[in-house]
Amino acid sequence: MDISLYFEPINEDIVRFKPKQFAHSAYGHQMSINRKNGSFPILEGAEIALIGVSEDREALENKGCGKAADYIRSRFYQLFSWQSNTNIIDLGNLRNGENVKDTYFAIEEVMSSLLEHDIVPIIIGGSNDMVFAMYKAYERIKRVVNIVSVDARFDIGSEDAPIDSQAYLSKIIMQQPNYLFNYTNIGYQSYFVDPELVQLMGNLYFDTYRLGVVRSDMKEVEPIVRNADMLSIDASAIRHADFQGNYYSSPNGFSCDEICMITRYAGISDKLSAIGFFEYNPMLDNNLQSAHLIAQMIWYFIDGFYQRKKDSPQFSKEMFVKYMVSIQDGLYEINFYKSKKSERWWMEVPYPPSQKARYERHNIIPCSHKDYEVACNDEVPDRWWQAMKKMV
C-alpha cells in the first residue's frame, strides 16, 4: 500500500524549515521529512514515524487543535538528539477526509501499515477522538491491546451518541470482534468525573488512577505505562500554569516534568508501539510555550525508545530471577520476575488454557517491587487481582 497518497508536506511557512539553521545533531537535520520539493520518506529501515493530524471537526470547544502539528514541529526540529544511528521519519500531515470517518479510516490504514513494519507511530495534533482510529489500526491487524490514556476526564460517552473528542471509548468497547484487553486512565480529576462513571469503569474491570494518587508516587506510573500497547495524552491533563494551549486546561494537572516522565516511561517500554498527543491548540498558546512542552515530551519518548532493554519475560526468562510467593496458606501462588538487566519487575497471572491466543501476550504483567513486598506480606497485590479478573 502506498501510504504517501494520504499525506501532504509540512507547512514550511510555520516550521520555517531552513536546513542550515539546524546543527548536525538536531532532529530537523537528522530526520527524513516530507517536504514540498522533496521525496516521500522511505519506510524501510525506519523505527519511528511522526504523523501530523489536522482533524478537529469533533473537537468540543477546542477548534484549532487541528493546526497543532506544524507548530509542534517548529519546536521539535530544533531539539538535539543524544542518540546515534537513529532512523526517524516525518511523514507530513495526514489529509483530512471528506468527513471525519474518512479521516479515521486514513489513520487506521496508515498506522496499521506502520505497525506491520515494526515502525512506531507518533501522532501529533488533532482532537482526542483520534484514539478511536488508533485502536482500529490494531483491530485491523488483529492484535489484542491495552490502551492507556492520560486524561483529566473519562471520554466514554454513550453507546448511541456520535463520536467526538469526549465520547469515543464506548465505541471501542462495543466493537465486535473486540480487541481491547484493557483500558487504563491515568490522572483523572474527580471534580470533572461523574461518580457513576467511576463505578462503571470498575464494573468493566478498567483501571483508573486519580491525579492525586498518581502524583504521590510517580514511579508507580512506570509499570502502568509499561503494560500499554498504545498511549494517548490529552493536553487537558497538564496544569494551566505549564500548558495554556488547551481550552479545558485548569489549575490542577500534571506538571511539565511529570508529563515528560510519563512519556519517557512510554519510550523505554518494549511493549508500547504507538503514542498520540492530542488537543493542543496553538491559537491559545502564548509564545508557543505549550508547543515547546509537547516537543520536549516527544524528545523524552524518543530518548527512552533508544534505551529499550528488550528484557520482557515474554522474550526470554533466562535473564530474570524468579521469585515464587505463596499467599494465604497456598490459596494464591504468584510468580514474580526481576530483570537482571534493568531490575524491573513483572508478575504472572494464570489464564484459562482455552484463551491462550487472546491472553498469552497479557498474562505476564509489569509490576513494581512494591507489589512483591505486598505479596510477601501475605496480601494479594491489587494489580494482580485486577488482571486476574480480566482473565476469567
Task: List the keywords.
Arginase, Chain A, 2 domains, ten-stranded mixed sheet, single chain, 14 helices
In short:
The chain is built from 14 helices and 14 strands. With 392 residues, the chain is an alpha/beta fold. Helix 3 packs across helix 11 (289-305), helix 4 (100-116) crosses helix 5 and helix 10 (256-268) runs parallel beside helix 11 (289-305).
Notes on the protein architecture:
- By secondary structure, the protein is α/β, with parallel strands linked by helices.
- It has two domains: 3-305, Arginase, Chain A, CATH 3.40.800; 317-391, no CATH class.
- It has helices spanning 12-15, 27-30, 68-76, 100-116, 130-140, 169-174, 195-203, 211-216, 221-226, 256-268, 289-305, 356-359, 369-376, 382-391, and strands spanning 7-8, 32-33, 48-53, 88-94, 120-124, 145-150, 180-188, 207-210, 230-234, 274-278, 320-327, 332-339, 345-348, 364-367.
- Strands 1, 2, 3, 4, 5, 6, 7, 8, 9 and 10 form a ten-stranded mixed beta sheet that branches. A four-stranded antiparallel beta sheet has the order 11-12-13-14.
- Helix 3 packs across helix 11 (289-305).
- The protein is globular.
- The model has no long low-confidence stretch (mean pLDDT 93).
